[in-house]
Amino acid sequence: MSETPLSLSVLELATVGTGQTTADALANTTAVARAADRLGYRRLWVAEHHNMPAVASTNPPVLIAHLAAATERIVVGSGGVMLPNHAPLVVAEQFALLEALHPGRIDLGIGRAPGTDQHTALALRRDPAALSAEDFPQNVVDLLGLFGDARVEGGLAERFSATPAAVTAPRVVLLGSSSFSAQLAGQLGLPFTFAHHFGSPHTVAALEVYRDAFVPSDHQAQPYAVVTANALVADTDADAARLALPGQLMRLSIRTGRLRPVPSLEEAAVHPERSAAENMPSNAVIGGPERVVAELRALAAETGADELMVTASTHGVAERVRSLELLAAAWGLAPAGQAAA
């Protein structure tokens, strides 16, 4: 390629499929992380979900520690830690420790959604008053203070430290699917990631809010926007459509409140809700390499994204790794150890 391509990253959901155990799912996630590291993806994030039969990633810091140790150069982080579920000091201690173990390779992406249903959120937070997440902005500021942000006065940092003798701090990123976190990220001068893979029609509007609200900081001199996308690549459009069906059925189960593991390809092919899943509104990018690259470049141009973060949802790990391989080659990523063209 004649120019350096836009950075690509990976959102890895650690999905559990039919016939798979939690151990299988985490081994698959490790394989995906190693592939992303080898292929030249910039970062890999894992999410926080609770009480869901299709998702093994319940504790991002534990999984991040494993994945960072299993890879060499890729940045590993959370997409995200649902901050209202946790005490800010606990999160700060966890990620300061991760940063000390893997300097310069840790992202702390944080969101304000529960990552689960209200009953599970209550079990996590232990206080009905905490379900509103009204303290989220202050909790974010407290986190920044605990990591040494000189702008923060008062709060937890007056009495506590995330770690005794930090040299570097994790990169803090706000996540969102609305304008609330977009505006907060801008006001705090932080990078912002919009969850376009949720299917929201408000991606462009939220990013405009972010850029309009942006105040330069020591974290970011100018706005930095990451846009996530469901993207599954196969050798042909037909193969990609077939492989995408398990993920489509999983999304249908989430939207209808009937949670279950990701079905196998064989189950998906004869599933009674196959037609409903295939016809469900979606902004997923599915197809052969040329088609997917063209659609992702169009998304980047429409949103002005500084980075795209892709997630591939299907049953088998070999297919997820193959998707990353095909996309990396077609996009022009430089594999580990090679200079960009």
UniProtKB/TrEMBL annotation:
One Gene Ontology term of the molecular function aspect: oxidoreductase activity, acting on paired donors, with incorporation or reduction of molecular oxygen
GO cellular component: cytosol
Domain Luciferase-like: 14-306
Family statement drawn from the similarity comment of this UniProt entry: To bacterial alkanal monooxygenase alpha and beta chains.
Protein name according to UniProt: LLM class flavin-dependent oxidoreductase
Species for this entry: Modestobacter muralis
